[in-house]
Amino acid sequence: MGSPISTPPDPGLRRTFRQLVPWRAALTIGAMLVFVALLQRLPVIHRLLENAPHWHETPYAPLWFLLLAVPYCACGLPRQALCIAAGLAFGVWGGLGLCSLAYMMGAIAAYGWARALSPIKFRQRLHDRLQKNYAALARTLHRKPFRAVLTLRLMPVGSALLVSMAAGLFELSVPAFALATLLGGLPQNLVFVLVGAGTRIGHVVQLGLAGGLFVVSGALGAMLLRHADE
After folding, report:
1. What angle do CA 98, 99, 101 make, to 5 degrees?
2. Distance (Å, whole) CA 155 – CA 165
3. How large is the average pLDDT for residues 29-44?
4. Counting beta carbons within 10 angstroms of the beta carbon of residue 169, is it exposed (0 to 12), middle (13 to 18) or buried (19 or more)?
């Protein structure tokens, strides 16, 4: 008996992902590291960073952070700034935990709004737009929701809000969406938390580690993309 013929990956899906990941995304972390290194040379910033390890001593600091971070993530605002601030205030592991939780909760909030609370006309218009412009992505979201969301979250660039709203409009499984968001967001969350923690005085090595992890995150996304429609 011959071996089964595998279905070739959908070229439309690959084109969709390539549009979401332009070549200039590779420059993002480099620009961030250079900016942070230059910023540290300012006397005012230097004194501010010396006090950063004590910011978490504010009463109920993690709770206040989540109260601000969850709606921030739900609106799809750049989480890089949020992760850098968390790294400064709470260190690597505390900042990573808080940012990852806020990112997942914010994504679930955007998912829920798109699925149940947004105006019907808005839902229909966005649904039609996704079906027209991202047909291959829509098919993959239906067939393999966990892998599709995980791949999108791992990509260095792209609209986190659009992914959450698309998942809500297509009524993906909430547990699969939440888990894929949590796991897919971890590498980049860690990258920018390390950048934030690395701006503390004497933590320069973490900046280099952040750059390496950024490359790893992109490689994971590319690997999943290669097998996205197999």
Report:
1. 65
2. 17
3. 60
4. buried
Q: Say what the pTM is.
A: 0.72
Q: What percent of the chain has pLDDT over 90?
A: 19
Compute the average pLDDT of residues 139-147: 82
Non-local CB neighbours of 94 within 8 Å, separated by 6+ positions: 56, 62, 86
The DSSP call for residue 6 is P
Tell whether the torsion through CA atoms of 9, 12, 14 and 16 is positive or negative.
negative
CA distances 97 to 75, 83, 123, 158, 205, Å, are 20, 10, 32, 22, 21
The owner of tokens 């011959």 is 2
Per the model's pLDDT, the better-predicted residue between 194 and 46 turns out to be: 194
pLDDT, position 23: 45
3-state class (DSSP) for residue 9: coil
Determine phi and psi for 41, rounding to 5 degrees.
-80, -15
The residue extents of the domains of the chain are 27-53+70-226
